[in-house]
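Exercise 7.
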Amino acid sequence: MSASLSLSASKEELLAALTQAENRILQLESALAQATAVQVITPAGTDAQLAEQRSFYETILAELPIEVVVLDEAQRYLYANPHAVADPVARHWLLGHTLTDYCTQYGHPLAYAEQRQAKFKQALSNQHSISWIEESPSEDGARYYQRNFKVILHPDGSLRMMLGYGLDVTERYLAEEKLRQSELQLLEQQEFANQVLDTNPSMIYVRDATGRFTFQNRGMKQLRALGERLEDYDQSYPQASIQAQERQIYAAAESYVRDTREEIVSEDPFTLPSGEVLYFQTVRRPIERPDGSVEVLAVSTNITDLKRIQETLQRSEKQYRDLMHYAQALICTHDLNGNVLSVNPALATLLKRPAEAIVGRSLAATMPAEDQEGFAEYLQQIITNQEVTGLQRILPDGSTELRYVHYRNYLVQETNHAPYVLSHAHDITERILAEKEMKRARYEAEATARARENFLANMSHEIRTPMNGILGYANLLAKSQLSPIQQQQLNVIRSSGQHLLAVLNDVLDMAKITSGKLELDQTAFNLCDSMGQAVQPLALQAAEKGLAFYATPLRLSCPLPWVVGDQYRINQILINLVANAVKFTKQGSITVKGLLLAETDSQLTVQFSVADTGIGIPEDKKAHIFEDFTQAYTDTTRNYGGTGLGLSISRALVAQMGGTLHLESELGKGSTFAFTLSLPRAPLSVPVERPKNTDTTRLAGKRVLLVEDNEINRDVARLFLEDWGVQVDEAADGNLAVALFKHYTYDVVLMDIQMPGMNGLETTAHLRRHPDPRRAATPILALTANAFRSDNEQYLAAGMNDCLAKPFEEEDLFQKLEALLNTPPPAPLYDLTHLRDLSRGREAFVAKIIRSFLTNIPVSLEELRVAAEAGLWPKAAELLHHIKPNLLSLGIAGAEEPLQQLERLRQASNPSPAEAEQLRAIVLSLIAHIEQVLQALPHEVTEQDSQPIH
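Solution. The predicted structure, written as tokens, is:
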């Protein structure tokens, strides 16, 4: 064995050298034992030989490339070769000392001594050799030694010596450590790679030509467990099964990869035993092994969800294509420049062009030339608002017939895609044309209704105006001394006039009902008393004809018949029915009954019936007698008179009140008409109507301005007034009335409505603008030949105080005048309470608002006057909207009702001439009223109020 070992020795060489050294130590051990034995038994003459032999073995031990020591039972060194302790002095000192002594002596760590002591005890305890690796410090760094303790015993089993030897195995240890680290790293890398592959959601596996798996990740194992077995293509499933067919496809794909050594990508179905089908996208590529065989690496990604999404998307796309293709809606898309991107067949059909010819064109090209200018504005709206709805005219290719489409378009914006507009529309041409036709028909109907209303109003005016003169003079004649014949003739005149007036009222009532303008009053009254008073004159007529008249009053079944309703119209129904009974009954009787049918705390349900023994109505005529201008027989009017409107009016009034009207009749035996109404109860504390004051002397000394263009009517009114001691000034037109009003002070103004030149409404507006607020507030009574309630509301809104319809009775005129003259003083023109509440005591603030009003409102009023006179109603509406908050903040009295009337201006962009005239009169009256306020307001601002606001 060489004296030293090569540092570059391999692991195997080091192990061999160590084995040789151990054998040599064993030989030396034997030699030492023999030498010792010889020394014991050899005579003294052999010392030289023994010394030579000892020197020989020591020389060998000194040359061994290992550390050799010998310890006694006390762990004292008996021997140490130079490899164990190189320093001769230290080696000599060591003999007879322990390792602990040595470490203490030379400053080595005691841990080495403690470790050796433990190993010594371990070897002594086990009675055999032990081996370990020990790290020792050196100048070149740590060195690693393989240490050994071997127990050498006496024949009696006691410890003879402990042989210790060690070999420097630093190179081998480091090489093994490096190998271990490499193996550990390789193992970690393998574990990491396996973890990555197992974590990968894809199924990864390698199979050889026999179909055996040489590698598979966790996902593949789980899939195989899910599919029960995958290793054999045809063992787990019958050949005819779907699974076997799928596996044959897999095998063919892998065979192709092995044969061609080409990578392939395929989409593979995988059917589970449950029948569920999974889909995988598999990448297969060849792997060549060191032995030259080719295996297949496959990476399969589960695309089942994606596949189903794709199938769903495909179905959705098909449905979308079907919807686009078969939908009757007009669908298209276009870019933000208006160029068509897609179009469905319905729209292509409407445009009379193939779809491919429309794509790429501008949508504006489908519009008539006059609409194309607004297309740019539409594009801007869709970009700004992202949704636009509207109506568009379309001109199909080669056609002159416009089509109308109602569209709803949406801006679609998707990431990484250019925005576009989705348009969904419907062809509503037929509806538009129908609406136009309906509007035309409605306009014609409204025009006809207006014409009828105007005709009726004119007829009413033309009849009532002379009728006022006839009846007025008849009333005046009745006050004079007349002979019996003259009195009889006068009664004929008055009766004929009243009859003509009743016919006129019936016609007007029917017109109101037909136009829906009949409004019902809601006042409290005693239903029993009212109905009794209404039929009393008819009972006298029945008696004059020799008819028996029986009455069952309502109070017999209803002790408290107080209700809320339209007393006049309810009476009118009963009067019409009783009048017909009297008219059509020649002999026999008439029976009128009032009956309570039901009652609650808030409502009474009553029935009134009228039975006669008259001519009766044939069965085939019952359904027609309620029609307008209809009577049972063609000669009825000739024989009995009447217009044929009474029953029509009665039925309409009952229906409007929510009741029912029934008829029972037998030809030749008579008829029974009955109507049922449910009316609200009146409060128990109903005010008692005071008797009318007819003391005409109360008006004596009053001065009245009578404005009337009809001379006869002026004469009638003047004679009535002068008979009461009233001073009368007459004006035949509005201009003369304004002039007289400026020079004289009047207690009341009687104002006709329809006059040539300046009508009554315009004249009223001028009077209300009088600079003296007291005189501007003079009561004005409208004398109107119009009988519609809407007309009266218009007159009141225009500034008049009350209305009296022509022809009027002397007593009615008296009552109206007395009511106006005895009316409490008018309310203040304005009320600053609300403004002062807002100011919280700061009068300077109130003064500032008033000064602003006085400065700015006159300009607005002049603009409003010009707009009203020119018929610029949108401008007038804008001005009214502007000044309305100022009027309300100053609490201007009487402004609210005209403002409500003028709310129609916001919709009345094109009112009829009659409506325009009404609106103009109301505007002028409101202006006059505000001008009065402007005259009265300045005294509210004092010098102290003019201080600045802090």
